[in-house]
């Protein structure tokens, strides 16, 4: 019987195999770039600025994502360290990618003289769209899925097409397509951002923080369905708190299995809760203390550009003064010459 699974290899160039996983991640990055560049035009920011940011941000994100994942799965890599670099086999963490990308962006944006929050706001919908597209790489690799479900649930309840249902059949057992849940959640978030950022009351930084909060809320509940979560052994009260927050989901879904010997707290859920709480406090604090004066729709200006313009103006003024002084001296010389001739 022929396999109904999709081939993770898109095509081959001689001995080199090109995986769908890499192509999808590349497409995700490109889609995010195009959205950022389009919005950047409204603020008169060079497209080269965003292209350079992508060229620096993507490797930073991949390094952060892989390092984050490997750090919590070191037992699987310590005997074969070379496998650490096999990212085409999957095994990267979104939160690690965000950490790597944000660190890179803070350095790059400040060197260019821009305010980080203003640029982060512009990039937020592109990041979320990139994550929505990137989850399909997990789909191709048959990873990041949820707990067991019936084929009937996938076909009749969710009305999923055959290619998704078949791909969710992992070694004879059908699973929750958590990649799809998260992808849809992220796309809805993109649409919300595109609508909200045009409102006058939105302050600088709030779009990016809102993006983190939106993603984290969805990730918290979807993560509870997964069976491959990164986890650690935490306190019982913390584990009970997390389970209580996830409790509303039990009305419809069953939680994914988490080996108690591996951990009792899903790391992504913990980070999601922290990001939502910190995001709320951050927005309130900046508003109350008056630090959120700039609005999203306000012009964006680079301090380096101002400095360059000021320097150019000063040089032009200096040249004008020099020319003027030279002209005055020349006139005086001509007048003296006329008097001498007389």
UniProtKB/TrEMBL annotation:
InterPro entries: Lgt. It is found in: Cell membrane. Residues 306-320 have a biased composition (Low complexity). It comes from the Bacteria. The keyword Transport does not apply. Its main location: membrane. Catalyzes the transfer of the diacylglyceryl group from phosphatidylglycerol to the sulfhydryl group of the N-terminal cysteine of a prolipoprotein, the first step in the formation of mature lipoproteins. Belongs to the Lgt family. PANTHER family: PHOSPHATIDYLGLYCEROL--PROLIPOPROTEIN DIACYLGLYCERYL TRANSFERASE, PROLIPOPROTEIN DIACYLGLYCERYL TRANSFERASE. NCBIfam families: lgt. This is Phosphatidylglycerol--prolipoprotein diacylglyceryl transferase. The gene is lgt.
């Amino acid at each position: 019987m022929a396999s109904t699974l999709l081939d993770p290899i898109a095509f081959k160039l001689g001995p080199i195999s090109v995986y769908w996983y890499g192509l999808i991640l590349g497409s995700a990055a490109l889609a995010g770039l195009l959205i950022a560049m389009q919005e950047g035009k409204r603020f008169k920011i060079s497209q080269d600025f965003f292209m350079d940011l992508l060229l620096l941000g993507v490797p930073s994100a991949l390094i952060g994502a892989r390092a984050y994942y490997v750090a919590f799965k070191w037992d699987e890599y310590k005997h074969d360290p070379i496998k650490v670099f096999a990212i085409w086999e999957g095994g990267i963490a979104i939160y690690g990618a965000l950490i790597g990308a944000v660190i890179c962006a803070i350095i790059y944006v400040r060197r260019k003289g821009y305010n980080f929050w203003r640029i982060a706001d512009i990039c937020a919908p592109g990041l979320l769209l990139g994550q929505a597209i990137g989850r399909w790489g997990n789909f191709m690799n048959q990873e990041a899925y949820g707990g067991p479900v019936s084929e009937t649930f996938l076909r009749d309840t969710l009305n999923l097409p055959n290619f998704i249902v078949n791909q969710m059949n992992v070694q004879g057992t059908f699973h929750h397509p958590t990649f799809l849940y998260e992808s849809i959640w992220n796309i809805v978030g993109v649409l919300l951002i595109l609508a909200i950022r045009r409102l006058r009351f939105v302050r600088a930084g709030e779009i990016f923080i809102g993006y983190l909060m939106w993603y984290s809320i969805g990730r918290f509940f979807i993560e509870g369905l997964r069976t491959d979560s990164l986890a650690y052994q935490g306190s019982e009260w913390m584990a009970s708190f997390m389970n209580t927050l996830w409790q509303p989901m039990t009305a419809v879904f069953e939680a994914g299995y988490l080996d108690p010997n591996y951990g009792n707290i899903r790391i992504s859920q913990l980070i999601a809760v922290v990001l939502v709480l910190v995001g709320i406090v951050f927005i309130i604090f900046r508003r109350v203390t008056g630090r959120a004066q700039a609005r999203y729709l306000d012009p964006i200006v680079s301090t380096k550009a101002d400095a360059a313009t000021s320097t150019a103006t000063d040089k032009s003024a200096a040249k004008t003064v020099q020319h003027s002084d030279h002209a005055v001296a020349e006139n005086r010389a001509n007048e003296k010459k006329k008097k001498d001739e007389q």
